[in-house]
Specification:
Number of strands: 0
Mean pLDDT: 78
Structural class: mainly alpha
Largest sheet: none
Helix content: 40-55%
Oligomer: single chain
CATH topology: Serine Threonine Protein Phosphatase 5, Tetratricopeptide repeat
CATH architecture: Alpha Horseshoe
Shape: elongated
Distance between the termini: 34 Å
Radius of gyration: 17 Å
CATH class: Mainly Alpha
């Protein structure tokens, strides 16, 4: 999929609440999805309300599996049944997204452990370099972040633009998640491909509390 990227700082300045939406054109190319305010990945853009009962027609077109449908709907019982039957918890859609990524984004605290126990790869990345940890962090799902880190998620993983889970949490004003990541090994001074850091993002947003938290954690630029 051809995608054009906008500098991360520009996104922070123009869309501080929706910084994770780094490619509007790519997200809208199918004409089937509502405008996303979070992720550049088609799977992570969906919300359960768009699929009451699981819209199989839409999901089939998008290449999603029954496990993905169940995850979309937050249907724990179906996820458990499919897992018990041996359904592939690491199946990906055309963008490389997995059920674990969507469950992490949505904060499905009861589904994430089932997927992990069934063999979901905690550090799997989609075609944009996004992981379940990034999905959870950018949406302030701190309990999910904790679960993923306990299972070996890479806290300083960078997506294709060099953006970390900490940067996404900062950009979306997720103070609780930011604090948790910092306490669990997040490198506060990493830079993205444009040279931006968590601190420079917080400063660009004018978020004084986050700026102070990052400086206290050792941020220098």
């Amino acid at each position: 999929m051809q995608r054009s990227r906008i500098g991360f700082l520009i996104l922070v300045l123009l869309f501080p609440v929706t910084v994770y939406a780094q490619n509007q054109e790519a997200r809208n190319e199918t004409g089937k999805k509502e405008k996303s305010v979070k992720s550049s990945s088609p799977l992570l853009n969906h919300q359960p309300s768009l699929f009451p009962g699981g819209n199989s027609a839409i999901l089939t077109v998008e290449g999603y599996t029954p496990m993905m449908v169940a995850t979309f709907s937050g249907d724990l019982k179906t996820v458990q049944k499919l897992s018990a039957k041996g359904d592939d918890v690491n199946a990906t859609d055309k963008s490389g997204d997995t059920p674990l990524m969507f469950a992490a984004l949505s904060g499905y605290k009861n589904i994430v452990p089932v997927l992990l126990k069934s063999g979901a790869k905690v550090n799997a990345k989609d075609h944009y370099g996004e992981t379940a940890l990034i999905a959870a962090a950018m949406n302030g799902q701190t309990l999910i972040v904790q679960l993923l880190l306990e299972k070996g998620a890479s806290v300083n993983w960078k997506d294709n633009n060099g953006v970390t889970a900490l940067m996404f949490a900062v950009a979306n004003g997720q103070i609780g998640t930011v604090k948790f990541l910092l306490k669990n090994g997040a490198n506060v001074n990493l830079k993205d491909r444009y040279g931006k850091t968590a601190l420079s993002i917080a400063q660009a947003m004018g978020d004084a509390p986050l700026v102070q938290i990052l400086k206290t954690a050792g941020a220098t630029g």
